[in-house]
Design a protein that fits this description.
about 30% helix; alpha+beta; 2 helices
């Protein structure tokens, strides 16, 4: 009888330890997933914020028909926008880097209108607020004060 009780107790202990180990693996996976948030993918602009004293002063959505999409691979960025009220084409292509909460995009080429901007400024630095399915690229002035942001949602 003591022998049977010892076997049952040992079996319960093994089952409890196995369930606890599985729970730890699942908890660790969730932690890893939250740490590995990535900019890689396709994103669509959903709105803008203006800032005063580093606080959002107002927000607004793109106008009807306006569409801006950004695509990031492990090193490259490409974006395009469609403004129905403007016949000007807008797109750019280059590479990007993330260092802490700073997103730097360096454009190699772009549409005719964008080439004019690239000739004056190739590098664009933003404060980056990145979450799993949203991100904001925040323009800051020379003193580090927030000016405005473009806010995106992941579409792929």
């Amino acid at each position: 009888m003591k022998h049977l009780a010892l076997i049952i107790l040992t079996a319960l202990l093994v089952i409890a330890c196995k369930n606890n180990a599985n729970q730890n693996v699942q908890d660790n996976t969730k932690t890893q997933d939250s740490i590995n948030v990535s900019l890689e993918g396709t994103w669509e602009l959903v709105g803008f914020y203006n800032y005063i004293n580093n606080k959002v002063s107002d927000s607004f959505n793109p106008s009807t028909g306006y569409r801006q999409v950004k695509m990031y691979t492990s090193t490259k960025v490409m974006w395009s926008k469609n403004v129905p009220t403007d016949s000007t084409e807008w797109f750019g292509y280059g590479y990007y880097n993330i260092n802490g909460d700073t997103l730097t995009e360096v454009l190699d080429y772009g549409s005719k209108m964008m080439k004019k901007i690239i000739n004056e400024r190739k590098e664009f630095k933003y404060e980056l607020d990145l979450k799993e399915n949203t991100f904001s690229q925040i323009e800051v002035d020379d003193e580090g004060n927030r000016i405005y942001s473009e806010n995106y949602k992941r579409i792929e």
